[in-house]
Amino acid sequence: PSGAHVAALVIGTGYGGAVAALRLAQAGVDVHMVEMGMAWDTPGSDGKIFCNTREPDYRSYWLRTRTKAPLNYFLGFPIDRDIPRYTGILDAEEFGGITVYQGRGVGGGSLVNGGMAVTPRRENFGAVLPSVNPDEMYNVYYPRANAELGVGTVDPAWFDSTACYQYARVGRKHAQRSNFPFVFVPDVYDWDYMEQEAAGTVTKSALAGEILYGNNHGKKSLQQTYLARARSTGRVSVSPLHRVTSVAPASGGRYTVTVEQLNTTGAVTTVKTVTADRVFFAAGSVGTSKLLVRLKATGALPNLNGEVGRGWGDNGNVMCGRANHLWDPTGALQSSIPCCGIDNWAAGGAFAEVAPLPTGIETYASFYLSITNNPNRAQFSWNAAASRVDLNWQAAWKQPSITMAKTIFDKINSKEGTIYRTDLFGTYKIWGDHLTYHPLGGAVLNKATDNYGRLTAYPGLYVIDGALIPGNTTVNPFVTITALAERNIEKIIATDL
Ligand code: FAD
User: Fold this and answer.
1) Which residues contact residue 392 at a Cβ distance below 8 angstroms, ignoring those fewer than 6 apart?
2) 239 FRET partner, CA 20 to 30 A, in 87, 263, 324, 495?
3) 3-state class of 218 per DSSP?
4) Which stretches of the chain score pLDDT less than 50?
C-alpha cells in the first residue's frame, strides 16, 4: 500500500530479482518485489494459463494490437494477426535499429524463453565478465545456479529415437558432415515430462508448440524454482501489474520509490509511493538501463556515474533457415525446446542452436538461432524532447553476426548442396537480423557499478540483472545472469546488511 516501508524492494521478478529475493529472505530480510507484468497463475476461459504459438491470442503480447512474431513470414507470407490490447506475456520492444524481445510477468524472461541453460566455456569467461574471478564462478556460483534452476540434459538414447527431435538429428548430421563440433545443450525443461508427452501419457506442452507465449507444463520457470522457494520463506511478497517509475533519496538513508498500478489494458489506475532501505534494480538489461538513464538525466539520481546506459549488446543474435533436400525431412512434430547446437565459437565466433519450427507440418527447413561474437555496443540516452530513453543500435551493426554465422552455414550449404531459406523473415530475406532475445548490459559491472553491483554514489542501491553483463555471454545468458546474481548477493549480504 501507499506510504508503506519495506526493508528491501526488488524491481522485477526475472533471474536477478528472484535470486536477490530468495537470498535476502533467507538472511532474514523482508522483501517486496514489484513486477509490471501479470502473475500468470490463473487459467483463462480455455482452462489454460498460456496460449500456444500457433494461436496467439490476447495473452501473447505486451500492449499490442497486432502480434509481432520473431519469425513473421511463412512461405513468404506475413503471419501476424490482430489481437486485443492486453498486458500479455511477450514484449517486442522497438528501438530505432532493433526489436528487443522480453518476458513480462512474475518470472520475467523465464516465462517465455526456451529454457536453454548453458554455462560458457571456461576459456571464454574472461571476455564475458573480465572483472570476476573465474575460479569462484566455476567452483561455486555456476554449480549453485544450475542446481537451483533444475538444469538437465536430454537422454541421448531417447534423442536418437524420438520423432520430435528428427529436426535436431538432421541438424547434427549436417554439422558433423561439415566437421563442426556438435553439442547437446542443457535445459530447465523437465525431460522426463517430455518423454511422457511423446508417449502420450500426459498433456502436451513442448510437443504442442508451446514456448514463446509460455508453457502450461514441463518447463521449470522461476515460478517453480527460485520464486517458489523465496515465497516459502514467508518473507517475500510480490505485486504484479505494478511498474516502478522513480527511485529517489529520502531522509534517513532510505529511498522513495514511486510505483504505478496498471490494469490489463495498460492504463495506470493508481500511483503509490513507498520507502525502502535498499532497492535492487532487476528490471532486466533494458528495464534497468531505461530507469537509471532517466533517473540520472531528470534529477532523481543525478550522481549515478557516466557509465550508466553504456555497454549494451545483443549477444550477437541472428537467425536463419536452410532449405533441405526432400530426403531430409525435419518432421511435422517438433519439440519446441531446443536441445543441441553447433559450436564454432573458437574458429568462427558463432554458436548456433538447432532451433525448432513447430508449425505442425513438414517444412523441410532447418532453423537456427546463432549467438555470435558481435563487437558492437550501443548506448541508452535520455531523449528530453520525446520524454523517453533511446538506444542508438544501428541495423547495420548486425553485419558481423551474419559474417560469423556464415562461417557455419555457408560451409554446411556447400557440403550438402543446399541453400538458405528466403521466406521466413520477409520475401527474399535470409537473415533474421532485426531482433534480439538476449539484451545484455547498460549498467556494466565494475563500470556503472562496483564489482558487486553497488551503485556506489547511492548506498543501498544495487543492480542485479542482465544489465551488469557487458553485451555478450558467448552462449545463452540466463545461467550467467543467475550465477552472477548469486555471487553478488552473497557479498552484499555479508558486508552491507
Ligand atoms: P528479466 O528476466 O527480463 O526480468 C526483468 C523483469 O522486470 C520482467 O519481468 C519485467 O516485466 C520487469 N520490469 C521491467 N521494468 C520494470 C519496472 N519499471 N517496474 C516493474 N517491473 C519491471 N536465455 C537463455 O539463457 N536461454 C534461452 O533459451 C533463452 N531463450 C529466450 C527466448 C526468448 C523468446 C526470450 C525473450 C529470451 C530468451 N532468453 C534465453 C533470454 C533470457 O530470458 C534473459 O536473458 C533473462 O530473462 C534476463 O534476466 P534478467 O533477470 O536480467 O531480466
Assistant:
1) 96, 97, 378, 379, 381
2) 495
3) coil
4) none
